[in-house]
Amino acid sequence: MPSVVQTRRVAEPPAFVRLASHPLRWALMSALAESDLRVRELTARVGEPQNLVSYHLRLLRDAGLVTTTRSTYDGRDTYYHLDLDRCAHGLAETGAALHPVLRPAPVAPAVRPPRRTAVLFVCTGNSARSPIAEALLRLRLGGRVTVTSAGTRPKPDLHPHAVRVLREGFEIDVADQRPRHLDTLAARRFDHVITLCDKAREACPEFRDDPRRTHWSVPDPATTRVPDQGYRAFQAVAADIDMRVRHLLPVLADPPPQEVQP
Prior knowledge:
By secondary structure, the chain is of the alpha/beta class. The chain has helices at 15-20, 23-34, 39-46, 50-62, 84-98, 129-141, 160-170, 198-203, 230-253; strands at residues 37-38, 66-70, 78-82, 117-123, 145-151, 192-195, 212-215.
């Protein structure tokens, strides 16, 4: 008696696979995994026309993988940001859909940099976003990283809500810290320079030894116009920065690329 081959309906690939498997969308996601970028910068990165890039960005936005913020430097510009947590969730769902053995394993401890790495966070006033990032990275990595923050136009003091959100949310005391001007660090060497303010990104100078430049387009919590929402804005920004800092840790653990000698 001939054998009967049983067939079954093959399920559709998970949504993340259908989105990320497109070469242009993967190129856009790869670029945004490094830094928040504007459309014209993404167009230059991937070498495709702006209308095509905008179309695929819209698909990624509709899927919740990419978010946008209006530039505080030029309101006609928009920064695109890749939600890495959403991507991680999509990858986990994809593996589990293929086979149970591919379900995500328990999260491993944060990888620590193999050498002491110097990181600089920059915003305009150095009173909220960059000192929050400085404090949170120091909390995560302690003595394994040299971390500093500065402003292109520093304020006289840290914003009281920034001091409060670090104290109440993370048990970090920065009450005695004072903003510093970016010019005071001109002679310092940094491995990473990260701007958290669209205006500061445009004003940030070049540094010696060509550090890796990254931009996080984070809104200024001090500019909220909603009554009774001032401190909540700082809480939201601190949570956003903390997520970005956690995503930064494995990047800091990667050794710098070695130059090929001729």
